[in-house]
Amino acid sequence: MFRAIVITRAEDQSTNAAVTELAPETLPEGNVQVRIDWSTLNYKDALAMTGRGAVVRQFPMVPGIDLAGVIEHSDSADWSPGDRVLVNGWGIGEKHWGGLAQKARVNSAWLTRLPDNLNARQAMSIGTAGYTAMLSVMALERHGLTPDQGDVLVTGASGGVGTFAIMLLAGQGYRVVAATGRTEEQNYLKALGASEIIHRDELSAPGRPLGKTRWAGVIDSAGSHTLANACAHTHENGLVAACGLAQGMEFPATVAPFILRGVTLLGINSVTRPQTERQTAWSRLASEIDTDMLDTTTREIGLSNAISAADDLLAGRVRGRLVVDVSR
After folding, report:
1. Which residue stretches of the chain are H helix?
2. Is the Cβ–Cβ distance between 205 and 226 less than 8 Å?
3. Is the pTM here over 0.70, yes or no?
4. Helices (H) and strands (E) in the chain, counts
5. Is beta strand 152-154 parallel, antiparallel or unpaired with respect to 176-180?
6. What is the dihedral of CA 61, 65, 69, 71, to 10 degrees?
7. CA distances from 132 to 105, 163, 281, 324, 326 (A)
8. Is the peptide bond before 60 cis (omega within 30 degrees of 0)?
9. Three-state secondary structure along 137-187?
10. Of 31, 127, 135, 166, which one's alpha carbon is 20 to 30 angstroms from that of 295?
11. Domains present along the chain, CATH in parentheses
């Protein structure tokens, strides 16, 4: 038997999440079975467990879009028992049972080898949030952004993606402008590497099609008016990486930044990236993230605490990352 958080749906379409004992035979199809050591609590997981977002595609569902652990059984020639692996994306926690459990059975094509210099807890401290931040940085770099071109805005700066985006950009020599609704976190954000803090209210309300240019690049995890205003204040030929929708899925903007300033909007899909790109991103994370700094951005909870922590995460009361020790 193993423990997992299971989301069920009643006839009236209401959902409920509870820690449940399951038999290994109940695991979904897959050619690799993993003993999970650590998982995380992400924004998407919190939406799934509280029923506030249409995240879960079928029921019952084990949430958790991240997991890290050791292979217990493999029917794949590419993987062997004892291999250290992580999984993020590919629909786990949405269409396929995810990582907020002690065991998982998955498709071997979804596995990423854990870098030698990262342990499972550190990998989950980074998780999809850090991985998405790295994909965003890689996209900006691939399209030519360099530190000498100007500031880079990071929205949702106190959240998971924002935290890692600041660390990664500052580590590469960029001057980072951090937008947050929690200005009491200024010292924390500056310790991560932010040079300037602005309140998210400067960007979150309807704005003008074009505004004064303020930054050469953007990593945005908010969407909605925040993304529209970020684009409106981006330098000529600047770059905007859109990787989240914390404020909303809509994009109430005009084409003005794109046709009058040549701004490029880059969509960041972290769910179905090819393994070569995933391995590159995780290798860079292992080498560029100060693992000692992870302790300042991470809080540890047990599997039994994850459901109650979901409300705090959605309410913006969580700084940085929550890692989940699935053994307790």
Report:
1. 43-50, 120-142, 160-171, 186-192, 201-204, 224-232, 256-260, 275-288, 291-297, 306-314
2. no
3. yes
4. 10, 15
5. parallel
6. 60
7. 24, 11, 9, 19, 23
8. yes
9. HHHHHHCCCCHHHCCEEECCCCCHHHHHHHHHHHHCCCCEEEEECCHHHHH
10. 135
11. 2-114+293-325 (3.90.180.10), 128-267 (3.40.50.720)
* CA proximity to 105, closest of 36, 21, 29: 29
Residue type, 216: A
211 alpha carbon, distance to own chain's centre = 29
Token output for 73: 């059984």
CA atoms within 13 A on the CB side of 182: 16
Q: Which residue reads 């038999």 in tokens?
A: 23
**Residue at 52: amino acid letter:** R
Query: One digit per residue, pLDDT tens: the chain, 328 residues?
Result: 999 999 999 989 899 999 999 999 999 999 999 999 999 999 899 999 998 878 898 999 999 999 999 999 999 999 999 999 999 999 999 999 999 999 999 999 999 999 999 999 999 999 999 999 999 999 999 999 999 999 999 999 988 899 999 999 999 999 999 999 988 889 999 999 999 999 999 999 999 999 999 999 999 999 999 999 999 999 999 999 999 998 999 999 999 999 999 999 999 999 999 999 999 999 999 999 988 888 877 899 999 899 999 998 888 788 778 999 999 8
